[in-house]
Amino acid sequence: MAVTDKKTKQTRRVNGQEEKIEKQKRWISREDGKQEDKMAAQDVKKEGINGLSDRIREQRKKMGITQGEMARRIGGGIRTVNDYERGTRQPSYAKLLALATLFNVSTDYLLGVKKEF
Fold it and tell me: Is the pTM of this model over 0.70?
């Protein structure tokens, strides 16, 4: 399977003004010759980063705190924390460091690079 990234430029009207938008699309060529057009964010949503969402949820429950409390401690919103745990959103580098500090684990552990804290 070959994977190539392609940027497309589009325009849209917002409040009577045109904005240029760049979207990055990922083209996946399958062996059968078919191509699928998928947004890169959808790939992250399906695959995740080696179980990051599961590790975040596991560590939060191990600490015995709610999503709201976790959001407050890392400086984010409840919806964002919920998205992290569902795997529909990936934390920024700063939030990943905040999560690792909160849980007292390494970022490598959260990302699935290491099996131990």
Answer: no
